[in-house]
Amino acid sequence: MTGAEANRRFPGYRLPDDHRVLLQPDGGFVLSERAIVAHVTMAQALGADIRARETVLDWSPIAGGGVRVRTTRGSYEAGRLVLAPGAWIGDLVPALKPIAVPERQVLGWFQPGDPAKFAPDAFPVLNLMVEEGRYYLLPIWGVPGLKIGLYHHLGETGAADAISRDVTREDEAVLRRCIGRYFPQADGPTMALHACMFTNTPDEHFIIDTLPGNADVVVASPCSGHGYKFASVVGDIVADLATTGTSRFDLSMFRMDRF
Ligand SMILES: Cc1cc2nc3c(=O)[nH]c(=O)nc-3n(C[C@H](O)[C@H](O)[C@H](O)COP(=O)(O)OP(=O)(O)OC[C@H]3O[C@@H](n4cnc5c(N)ncnc54)[C@H](O)[C@@H]3O)c2cc1C
Fold this sequence. Notes:
Blueprint: H1 3-9, H2 32-45, E1 56-61, E2 67-71, E3 75-78, E4 81-83, H3 89-92, E5 101-110, E6 126-130, E7 133-138, E8 146-150, H4 169-182, E9 190-200, E10 207-211, E11 214-221, H5 231-244
Parallel strand pairs: 4-11
Antiparallel strand pairs: 1-2, 2-3, 5-8, 5-9, 6-7, 7-8, 10-11
Flavin-adenine dinucleotide (FAD) binds next to strand 5 and strand 9.
């Protein structure tokens, strides 16, 4: 449909009339925090031993096979190890430092004058390519504000622990630039601003592989800003790699050695 048609159908939008719009009527969003709790609960029911708030300090191969892991609470030995530490992957797998690069992202929530126009039934999740950049927006849910982020935000990359979690006026301005022009009815007071991290590979595809030179270690970096929705299938693949060394899926596009 055109932008004009989308604006009529979804009154919170004010897209240029000739903007090309693709609507996926069954599109939506996953409540990630609740989904994580569901995954953990199911894993526990299947016998998983969950240890949260325990930092892995380092790991090393054991002569003859297997892996030793040292954490802030102790030391473990196992036949296989899965490493999936998100933006910290380069700390545990140094070969990935130049390949899986953390990038600062900022999310904003802005209060609309008429929240009903930005409720889930009135405002579809949106991926918007405009001259200001590529933005993503989500309807009001949980936090009473329209949620927005800009892919690659200010282009700030670095080591995960060095990336600033503080939010500045400039961060807010790049988000408001989009809200003010394309969703002006949501250009109200700021409700929340948060900084977090993407972990991008050069081709923006995931890394899911056994570690070259050590088949006992599985590495999963399913991010580049779009990994959460694939959590269930990535978990399936990683479990297969850890238990059988193979997957029923073709993983060539996720191999470490493609770079
Ligand atoms: C702003 C933003 C918006 C996003 N939007 C979307 C979206 O719309 N759709 C989508 O599909 N995806 C989205 N993503 C991407 C999604 O969040 C990631 O793909 C996903 O979280 C990757 O999961 P993960 O388990 O690999 O890493 P994480 O979710 O980062 O989990 C890694 C965990 O490992 C822990 N850890 C790190 N180092 C250690 C250590 N040494 N010892 C112990 N624990 C450690 C971390 O604390 C963290 O809890 C978004 C990401 C961001 C930042």
